[in-house]
Amino acid sequence: MSFLELKDLKVHFPIRGGIFNTIQDWVYAVDGVDMVIEEGKTYGLVGESGSGKTTIGKAIIGLEEVTGGDVEYEGVQVTNKARSRNEQYRNYNKDIQMIFQDSTSSLNPKKRIRDIIAEPMRNYFDYTDKEEKDEVIRLLEIVGLNEDAIYRYPHEFSGGQRQRLGVARAVASNPKLIIADEPTSALDLSVQAQVLNFMKQIQKEYGLSYLFISHDLSVVKHMADDIAIMHRGRFVERGSKDKIFNNPQHIYTRRLLSAIPQIDPLNREEHKIERQKVEQEYQEQEIHYYDENGRVYDLESFDENHWVALNPNDSSSKTLVADQEKGGN
Amino acid sequence: MWKTVVRRLLVMIPQIIILSMIVFTVAHFMPGDPFTGQLDPNIDPQQLDALREAAGWNDPLPIQYFRWVGNVFQGDFGKSYAQQVPVTTLIGSRAANSLRLGLVSTFFTYAIALPFGLFAGRYNESWFDRIVMVYSYVSFAIPTFVLALIMVYFFGYRLGWFPTRGSVSSSLTAGTGAYYWDMFYRLLLPGFTGGVLGTASTIQTLRNEVIDAKTQDYVRTARSKGVPEGKIYSKHIFRNAFLPIASSIGFIFSSLLNGSVFIERIFAFNGMGDLFITSITSRDYSVVITLVLLYGVIAIIGSLVSDIVLSLVDPRIRID
Amino acid sequence: MATKETLLEINNLEVGFRFSDAYHNAVDDVSITLKENEILAIVGESGSGKSTLATAIIGLHDPNNTQIKGEILYKGLDLTNLNTKLYNRIRGNDIGMIFQDPLGSLNPVMPIGKQIEESLIYHTDLNEKQRRQRVLELLNQVGIPNPERIIKQYPHELSGGMRQRIVIAIALANKPPIIIADEPTTALDVTIQAQILDLMKDIQEETNSGIILITHDLGVVAETADRVAVMYAGQIVEEAPVDVLFTDPKHPYTRSLLNSIPHELEEGEDDELHVIQGTVPSLQNLPRTGDRFKDRIPWIPDEAFDENPQLEEIAPNHKVRGNSWKHFYFEGEED
């Protein structure tokens, strides 16, 4: 069941200049993105820095003004309303939470852990003091921290622990969707493993969904069911994890995938050759995959649960794809 | 860059109009007027009223304001009632004095603050750094008039090195070499006094910037190239530490003309600070209004100059 | 194949930082060699001491609060005894360094060309014209288009990948036999990372230099390194050729680390990633005796650990610290 839908979402930032400081041009940070979020699933949003992936997350949660398109929550228009105090949007605010890369700056250093985690509960539920405390302790246990953490302050925890506190707080309002923006990219490998495990465990327990924003494809591969690849503010390809990793169609996706370092030292020469082949292909073919303004084409259905942004008027990219598929099979 | 300059100058126009309205209004609400206490107490109050009427001060304020604006556009800022000379003439002579004094003060400020700040930063925590810090706290804390009096007493009366009164000797003919030399010589003591007072903040800023720059990654890169220590400082650290100082140039520019009342009074130096206070106490409207406007314009231009200078010295900042 | 010459020989190196009055070793008993024409990766998580090791080799630690024991031999010369003046002859000339953050590593107010040229000024007799020529040559070598224009530009005008190429050009300026790269691609996007790593490999093959690659990214190691040393809590716990390390890891820490890499799930596989229990001890609380990894694998019986574990060769070119690896198994799967 889908509960959140992005329809042709656009976030444009003005560039000002000239004598009267008027708007000279726009940065098309997000430029027409469609997405449907269903219950209990994890969506990976992958792209390089500057691709607009973080902006999508912020636009959903109301930290970035939406320029065009809609955000619909259970059929209700909530575009730019996430921060409204209006009763009508209360559920939306409760149900969509976000965790950031740097939890240090998103946890109030002057508050104790109990108050930090209880804050969303106080906004949305009428717990008694005892109920609230029990609930905080329960959440801390889920993310692997013990009870005596509640009287401590954020700086007394390590980076991995703080990130887990961020997860615990996001879960506190019992949300349906957690937008996780690079939640583990500042963490060491063994600590990352812990945070990812807790995120999966919470998902099983609460049946919630994740929008997992990351530049790290191996993490996304581990976490996500569906993946969207973003470039220049638009999706170049979207589909199930299997389709994206095993049958990528857009040249940009293929280039990105081939660049992931493989833990396979015995075959690394082959990886290198393959990667450089794809890179060369990207340089030669790029023009066919973007319109004359360098814009990504509209997504079109390619296969079941698999959409690709190919040139609708130019068959060369499609033929190429077809050839490759034959070769691949 | 020209676009920004033009835009900023255009924005200045409404700012100045609003400023002039406020100043004009406030000046006229000050109790009393130039005639209060100025004229012979035996004069008939009715005569005074006639004078006021003739000067147009009984007209409604807006009418007075637009009459004044009309005159300003013809270059006429009115006449000082206290001194009976055109405001422009009065301010012109005072401004030249203040400007000279300001330039000499600024020179001393930087001559002292640059080496102190840079070396205190480079050798921070050393004995030199501690002495500089004590110096900067003292110079920050000492009241202007106390330092000025100490200077006058010590260098003027005890040692007799410097004359202590006036901006130029009245016995010399204007335009001669001796005249200019005397003028310069008389600037040194008040200029040095003003300069010392301005050093504290520059020293602190520079010292902190140097200490901060020392830990930057690009300094580590420079070290990894094998750049000798002296060059690390001169080419990398100092260059970056100067940026905030360079941007304060606009502020200095606007403070040059303001003058310091205390220094001007104590050294009997006819400058703008002194003029400002005198004209307020004597309710010399036309002088007060013109001075406030002048200060306003200079402050706005000063901040524009700062931005331009910063864009010249810091390649990351571009104004277009 | 001709035998490779040893460029750098580090013996029993200790690097200690002063906290209040005591020195605490961030690098403890590290011995390793770097040969020409090889990439030696030093892998570890934060707090492992890998960056401290790099800083010590190039002599950039704070001399007032750091204590160094042991030897760093470069062509028979012990670098640990050099004063700043002598070290400056080595730095940039014999050892080049590449840092993690390419924006922060470049002076924001100095043109690119000048920053590269600086390396040449203090180590060569080239005149201004020759230096300019060499700078352009270097920019070509690191794959920068339009070098004539770039030398007049400032760091903020270039992309992250371009900036990292500049940082590499600076390190290469005097063709140093040794290059130390500290997390050179961590701040970069994955496609740019691949290009930079290829570039470093190409350069290394061209110049026969030895590269020490410091990283936390095992993928980068697997793609680039010839030999790998794994560091934990200031010590090297395992050292092996790259293929051996990934196919036949021995030390419990290496094995745990490899197990916590996120991966696609096999059919029916438990989706839990391996988590190493506990946390890396802080410098002041680091146990100085016994096996430093012991606390993090508490299910292994005490008898399995050595009193004073040493790095020992268990097969040609494969060294492991202590004997605990012989008794190690993952919790829940009896050995």
TrEMBL record, chain A:
Instruction: Output the InterPro entries linked to this UniProt entry.
Output: AAA+_ATPase, ABC_transp_ATP-bind, ABC_transporter-like_ATP-bd, ABC_transporter-like_CS, Oligopep_ABC_C, P-loop_NTPase
In which compartments does the protein localize? Cell membrane
Query: Which Gene3D superfamilies does its entry note?
Result: P-loop containing nucleotide triphosphate hydrolases
Q: Name one GO molecular function term.
A: ATP binding
Q: Extract one GO cellular component term from the record.
A: plasma membrane
PROSITE patterns reported for this sequence? ABC_TRANSPORTER_1, ABC_TRANSPORTER_2
- Pfam families the record matches: ABC_tran, oligo_HPY
What is the membrane topology listed in the Swiss-Prot or TrEMBL record?
Peripheral membrane protein
Which of UniProt's keywords are assigned here?
ATP-binding, Nucleotide-binding, Peptide transport, Protein transport, Transport
Q: Does the keyword Chloroplast apply?
A: no
Q: What is its main location?
A: membrane
Taking every annotated instance into account, which residue ranges of this chain make up the domain ABC transporter? 4-257
The family annotation for this protein states:
Belongs to the ABC transporter superfamily.
Checking PANTHER family in the record gives: D,D-DIPEPTIDE TRANSPORT ATP-BINDING PROTEIN DDPF-RELATED, TRANSPORT ATP-BINDING PROTEIN
Q: What is this protein called?
A: Peptide/nickel transport system ATP-binding protein
Q: Which organism is it from?
A: Atopostipes suicloacalis DSM 15692
TrEMBL record, chain B:
How does the record say this protein sits in the membrane? Multi-pass membrane protein
Family of this protein? Belongs to the binding-protein-dependent transport system permease family.
The answer to whether keyword Ribosomal protein applies is: no
Supply the NCBIfam families for this chain. Opp4B (NF045472)
Q: Which domain of life is it from?
A: Bacteria
Name of the protein described by the UniProt record? Peptide/nickel transport system permease protein
Which residues span the membrane?
9-30, 99-120, 132-155, 187-206, 241-267, 287-313
Q: Name one GO cellular component term.
A: plasma membrane
> InterPro entries per the record?
BPD_transp_1_N, MetI-like, MetI-like_sf
- Alphabetical keyword list: Cell membrane, Membrane, Transmembrane, Transmembrane helix, Transport
Localization annotation: Cell membrane
Q: Which GO terms describe its biological process?
A: transmembrane transport
Domain (ABC transmembrane type-1) spans: 95-306
Q: Does the keyword Glycoprotein apply?
A: no
From TrEMBL, chain C:
The record's section on PROSITE patterns has: ABC_TRANSPORTER_1, ABC_TRANSPORTER_2
Describe the location of the ABC transporter domain by residue ranges.
Answer: 10-258
What SUPFAM superfamilies would the database entry show?
P-loop containing nucleoside triphosphate hydrolases (SSF52540)
How is the protein disposed in the membrane?
Peripheral membrane protein
Pfam families from the UniProt entry: ABC_tran, oligo_HPY
InterPro entries tied to this protein: AAA+_ATPase, ABC_Ni/Peptide_Import, ABC_transporter-like_ATP-bd, ABC_transporter-like_CS, Oligopep_ABC_C, P-loop_NTPase
Annotated Gene Ontology cellular component terms: plasma membrane
Q: Which UniProt keywords apply?
A: ATP-binding, Cell membrane, Membrane, Nucleotide-binding, Transport
GO molecular function terms listed in the Swiss-Prot or TrEMBL record: ATP binding; ATP hydrolysis activity
GO terms, biological process: peptide transport
Compartment(s) where it occurs, according to its Swiss-Prot or TrEMBL record = Cell membrane
**What is the similarity comment for this entry?**
Belongs to the ABC transporter superfamily.
NCBIfam families, alphabetized: oligo_HPY
Q: What is this protein called?
A: Peptide/nickel transport system ATP-binding protein
Q: What is the lineage of its organism?
A: Bacteria, Bacillati, Bacillota, Bacilli, Lactobacillales
